[in-house]
Amino acid sequence: MSKLPNVGTTIFTTMSKLAADHNAINLSQGFPNFPVDEILVSILKKKAGENVHQYMPMPGSPALLQQLAATIEKTYHRAVDPTRELLVAAGATQAIFTTIMALIDKGDEVIILDPSYDCYEPSVILAGGTPKRISLNAEFLPDWNAVNEAVNSSTKMIITNNPHNPSGRIWNNSDIEALEHLVQKHPQLIVLSDEVYEFITFDKPHLSANSSAILKNRSVIISSFGKTFHITGWKMGYAVAPEELMIEIKKVHQFNVFSVNSVSQAVLTDYLQQTDLDALGPFYKQKRDLFRSLMSDSRFELLACDGTYFQTARYSAISEEGDVAFCERLTIEHGVAAIPISVFNSDGKDEKIIRFCFAKDDATLIAATEKLCKI
Predict the structure, then answer these.
(1) Are 95 and 120 in contact (CB under 8 A)?
(2) E strands in 212-306
(3) pTM of this prediction?
């Protein structure tokens, strides 16, 4: 008997395989195709020759935890206790899974805002919880009236994702204030704040739960080294939480992975001291702007993109077919792979919108947009 009878192969795996099978340009799965920073590679070579190949402490390397605490204080002006409020994880997905398994019990309800990343609901189900999927509004921002109506005494957690995948939208001050009011009204409610694209923002600032005096004490905040430093294959992330929540999360973490890759932790400890996180937004803004300018002569309608490295586009001027079928045809017939948005919705709502990843080198973006503009 399956614990996840409705879960199959993820859309990311499906579309990447389809792209490979048809030699298409892969703008579907969210990973960069350009080299990582040479400084990072240099540190990796150096650390590989040092004595860093055995188990690190379960919560993470003390030196890395100290650097993370310094980064959070510099970025968000939040003082974090590195020994009690931080955890290094084997990627953001593992941090999310571990958090949900630690904090959600049978019968607990969890609010998930759609379109939503596909790891949220299965984790809730495996923990014995009940997912309650609520659609974002037409601008891909929270519908707080719907959220407030859905929360009751059984609601234990709300999962938020800001900057948002797949839409690329960033919350406004009013959204943060609405979430603050929600947790004040419901003292049992925990926020699982997925902020893996926190440093990839463009024309408006990222508003983190770390910066809210109310939310930081009620939230587990998830970050990603993979997204931040273009090293998705390293599967490295971390979680920030108040001590009473982190105690429970660490209990599950120690039997889930125990400790995370030791060489990667040693490398990232040094790299955090040598890199400029403020340069990441401008770097990806150039790619976003290039992609959007190259698509200006296409029949796709490009939607707002405040952050992440994803651009959503409406294709209703091109076709009335469903977005899954359209993405399949786009890959097979036109040589460019994208992700259909309907798969992120519990009800399969299809608004003829697809997602492109622009975390690619300029040559790839030029080649892909040449194909897209011919459709």
Answers:
(1) no
(2) 219-224, 237-240, 301-302
(3) 0.96
